[in-house]
Structures are given as C-alpha cells and as structure tokens.
From TrEMBL:
Conversion of 1,4-dihydroxy-2-naphthoate (DHNA) to demethylmenaquinone (DMK). It comes from Amycolatopsis camponoti. This is 1,4-dihydroxy-2-naphthoate octaprenyltransferase. InterPro entries: MenA, UbiA_prenyltransferase, UbiA_sf, UBIAD1. Keywords: Cell membrane, Membrane, Menaquinone biosynthesis, Transferase, Transmembrane, Transmembrane helix. GO terms for molecular function: 1,4-dihydroxy-2-naphthoate polyprenyltransferase activity. It catalyses: an all-trans-polyprenyl diphosphate + 1,4-dihydroxy-2-naphthoate + H(+) = a 2-demethylmenaquinol + CO2 + diphosphate. GO terms for cellular component: plasma membrane.
Amino acid sequence: MALNGAMASLSEWIEGARPRTLPNAVAPVVAGVGAAIALDAFSWWRSALALLVSLSLIVGVNYANDYSDGIRGTDENRVGPLRLVGSGVAAPKAVLTAALVALGLAGVLGLVLVALSGLWWLLAMGAVCILGAWFYTGGKKPYGYYGFGEIAVFVFFGLAGVLGTVYVQAGRVSWAALAGAVAVGSFSTAVLTANNLRDIPTDVESGKRTLATRLGDGGTRRLYLTLIAVPYVLSVVLGIFHPLVLITLLTAPMLLKSVRAVAGGAHGRELIPALRDTGLAMLAWAVLAAVALSF
C-alpha cells in the first residue's frame, strides 16, 4: 500500500488508466458510427457523446480493477503494466475516487445522451454497464474472478458499444451493425484473453479463477486464436452485401506477431505486445469497416 502522503505522478496516473486499452472503447463507437451512416442516420453530437461515455467507462473500470485487485493483494506479483494500488504509488482511496469519478462521468454523459435522444429505456442498459464495470473485480464475489470476464467484455464493449451507438442515432439496428458488434466484441475479448493468458500463473497463485485458469494454457491459446478469426469470417460474410468491407482483411497482417507469440507458447512479458497489437488491429478493423459502410 502507498505510504502516508505518497502521491502518484501524473504519468503514473495516466499509466494506471491503462491507455493501451482505449481502443476497446473507441472501436465499438467507430464501428457503430459506420453502421449509422449506412442507415443515413449519422449524428455527430450523438456519436461524440457515445465516445465520451465509452472512454469514461473504460477508464473507470480500469481504475476500479486497480483498486479492487490492489486491496485484495492480487497485483502483488503482477507481470503487466503498473498498478497504482498494488505497487504502492497511490493510496487505495485515491484510486477508488478516480474510479468513481470516471464511472460517474460516464453516467452523467450517458444521461445527457439519453435525454437528448428521448430513448429513456436505454438508462437501464447504461446502469447495467456501470454496475458491470464495478462488479468485474469489485464486491464480495466479483464475476471476473469466476470466469465471466470475457462474456462481460463481449457484451459491454462489443454488443452494447456498437449497437448502442447505432441505436441512439437511427432508432434501430441493422445486420451490418450486428456483424460489427460481434466482430469488435470478439477482438475486445481476445485482448482480455491474451491478458489472462499472461496472468495464469499469478492468478492461480492468488486464487483468481478467470476463464483462462479454467481452460488452462492450451485451451486459452486456442480461444484467443478462435476469437481473432471471427472478425475476418464476418468480413467475408458482410462483404457479400457490402463489398468494400473486404478492405478490413488488410488488418489481418497486424496480428501475425500476436498469432506467432500465442501459438508459439510465449509466456509472461512476451505476451504484452499481443495485447497492444490485438487492440490496434481491432481499432483499424473498425475504422476500415466504418469507411466501407459509409459508401
């Protein structure tokens, strides 16, 4: 824990927010914008608000995870990026406050978006997203510790992120939007899968029962490879109806190093680039899909 009076630097707070995860927040909104344009329903201010909600939510969940894992001692032997509480550079209360501020901002911005759109039933979905962010590692029985983290990421940063962005603009969704939601959700889940693959040894030691610890090393590697294949299968299917979407296949080479690392048995820090490259491939896929759907 942080010593009395210890205060993290600005750069440490930024690192604690885990900026490498931001593609997980941006990609679903970008894909949703493309689908909204295809429906002739694009609204720049609705898109901007959706993006701010998504960014606030992921920063909030990152700080919340830092706080909850830190006070449990899960991060004491962590291999990955800096954790503020686990490393002792910030007091738990300070990190908790940062998490609540970010999640609160997501809630306020979401309320503004819902009020201006008149789609009040979406408040329920927003509440579920915020609760999901907190209870991923927070509370007495965090679902992230019982193997449900991947499902939550797929739902929140795939289905909800993409389809929500489309719906607040068009008042409906489309098959293209659904395909984009599944693709982005698969990418985002693959990022978490690579993360949890890296952390299997320390998670087993701390009693954190992620899906990766349940599937084991080999099963988790196969899951990752399956997840990153899904978006490209959908690219081909969607390309039948929107031929320009086939340009998303150009992002596949971005994953070659990640595939080699995961399939080749890389461990620990050797897997960190796979998280980065998977996130960047997801963002590139979403951008190219949005451009393709705009024509």
